[in-house]
Amino acid sequence: MIIHQPGIIRQNGYSILWTKIEIEKGTGFFPEYVWYRVPEPYGAYFTTQNDAFLVPGIVCGMVLGEELEVRGNVSPKLAYHLEEYQHILNFRFPDLLQRVNVDYERLAPLAVKPKAVGTTFSGGVDSLFTLWNHLPQNQPDPDYQVTHGLFIKGFDILHTAERNYRLLYDQYVLWADKIGLALIPIETNIVGITHKRLPLSYFHGPHILSCGISLGGLFQRFFMPSSWDYYCLRKKAYSSDPLVDPLLSTETLDIIHHGATHRRGEKIEMIADWELAQNILWVCQEHKFEIAGWNCSRCDKCFRTMIPIFVLGKLDKFKTFAKPIKSNYEGLRWARKFSLRHDFFTEMFPFIKKHKSDFLPWLRGAVFLGIIRNFLVTNMPGFARKWLRRFGYYVTRNEAPDAYEMAEITQIIRDWNDTPPTRNT
Amino acid sequence: MSQSISLKHSLIDMIVHVPTLTKRTGKICISSRIELEKPLPHLPETLWYCFDEVHEDWLSPRSDGFAATGLLIAMYASEDLTIRGSFSPKLAYGLYDYRDVFHAWKPNLFKRVEIHFDQLKAVPQDNDQTGVATVFSGGVDSFYTLWSHLPQNQDIPEARVTHGLFVHGLDLRLDDETNFRAAAQTYAGLFNNLGLELILASTNAYLFSEFRIDWIYFHGAPMIGAALLMSPFLRRLYIPSGFPSYTKLVPLGLSPLTDHLLNTETLDFIHHGAATSRPDKLAVLVDWPVTYHHLRVCADKERLDILRNCSSCHKCYRTMTILAILDSLQKYNNFSQKLTIRDYIRWGLFTHLNVRHARDIRDKAMETRKYKMAFLIQVAIILRRIKQFTLRFFKGMLSEEQLYRIKRHVYKPDSDVLGGDV
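YS: structure for the whole thing
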């Protein structure tokens, strides 16, 4: 695999940091170019250092089993740590990811002194918790106060969902302004290099972090909000945790995995009285933006978030849930979408026992029914799944091989390079 | 950046006072008074680190080097921590996570306490921070990390090691000056031959944990503390991993999860070697003549004779069995040259055999078709299990205070050779 020297295109008020990744063995769709795009004031912070493409690129190389040749400059610190990074990923997924050799054309640190402190921001519990903890009133050290948030398009929100992205962004930016946070909309197709090869929910770490690394001229520090706490990490770890994320730091950019010390219930408790969280919290997996409130209030993640807020007695203050729980009985509805994945529900029992013990029997009922449903759903025979797909079940939003592509940007890069389209596109 | 941060103070506070620098007979010592609100018996009043006087320019009397050790003591004593003197903001940030990880690992031993800083001030950055050191004690992990960062094995020039750091008072008792001096002299020569320099240091940090906090949880903080005091010179410190591999990511004082949390603006701590199991490390080292007769792994500090290992403690047995599996025991004449059935029984019954390590070695013996050896290691593991169960049963009947008193009576306590002189 060759990761070519990145280039920057400035056009129509946007800057595009792009490169070409050539693979040898892979079959199926592979992006012709990979890129990040930000609005113009931030384009000045893009650098042609190859770190941002190398981080997700190495995971791609590992899944394809291809040695890497990296052109252009790479941070020596990152290069050193990638050995360890590869070992950990290979150790966790020995059948999926192999260790590969990496050839660097040039090792040189970035010659800038960035000042800003960033975090990825999706509006979910984890990112709100990380942001909350790094506001001036909670973080006395100015060097750790978050100045910028990255709102990524091309990750959990696809490029085709422009309207939804805009809807969220317009609200987020209003509230971000109130707390003095600069929200940067960043678009990318980088997920495309591992799409259909690795499950995104487990391998989101390098992709998200690469967005922060791409703005190497801006960030001296970048927070990665933790999805799993130390209790979960004791059982299983994937591609983003306090062990692996810091290995992607460079000489000028510190990557900090934040929030693994708190359980989801504790995080929710800490942000429950924050007006910003009450107005913009977005956790929904269903992306049904046409309904009132952004969160469908019926999917597993909506329930996992609503229940702790409900037992704290603060759900009425949250304006983004379409159908908030109003009584204990309604907790039973969780069974309809209950998922056993990641074992998140077990932490709820002690939390609910502490705050609203009369809700416990209903929660137990929901979990009991949910487990039965979950068993049936996950063990459904193939032919039945196929039949059910016509009614919208077992269908995911990002099924298309090119789900993360944006033809318009590929064309801009193509024109800039003046090259004809390749067969993959 | 310099600022004062005042947070909510609790009624009970432990204070790490502003460090002071003193000179005494060719040494330069940095010490800090550790003041507990509720003093613990037999705890020294000051925590100190001493270095050879020639390294004076490399030292900085900042509070950074005392923080992690102080924090663990404060968490044990359940007192909030106040750190006086200049303190790195980056380290301050990491220290909160360091606290939370140790508390998550051992909530009864390490209580979650508040941390207050007097003065946050970034470590000054200048061109003199060129040192890339590795912690060195002469053991398997140290030699492996050293080997991995020699120019012939490390392609990235910035990552090549330039110095070793050998700290007295961690694995070797502070009152055992003879063994330390002799080992230091041999290893300094070895480093010299490799074109590197060995930095010698000493500390009384062990005395703060003695019989109270298991050394395996405590040893990392003072080791990193010594390097933090050298912030005007060091930019990177490698910490050889004692883990067999990431499979056994267990709570330990030095861990890939926690070491980097003690980084400062100018000094990076890199936990190295967790990717490689001990048998694999030794498989590399047996082909490196520099290690022949120089491996020092012994845990029995009473019987260790300079570089001559006792050959009857759990660490000696562990290393000897691996060397025997690799058919290389004869290359190391500082170990006994044969392992008998009696040794395996002794290993399981009378030493602190680490079951996880022993299992790794047993599997390696199976791989190399040394079935008799694999069987004997398994016997040692079973004996160890029986002993562990019995000990746990009796320990469960004693209080923490009673256990402390028994340990002080049974084992010989170390002595603070500098005492109140610092």
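YS: worth flagging: The longest strand of chain B covers residues 27-35.
IM: good catch. Also Chain B has three domains: 2-121, 131-272, 278-395.
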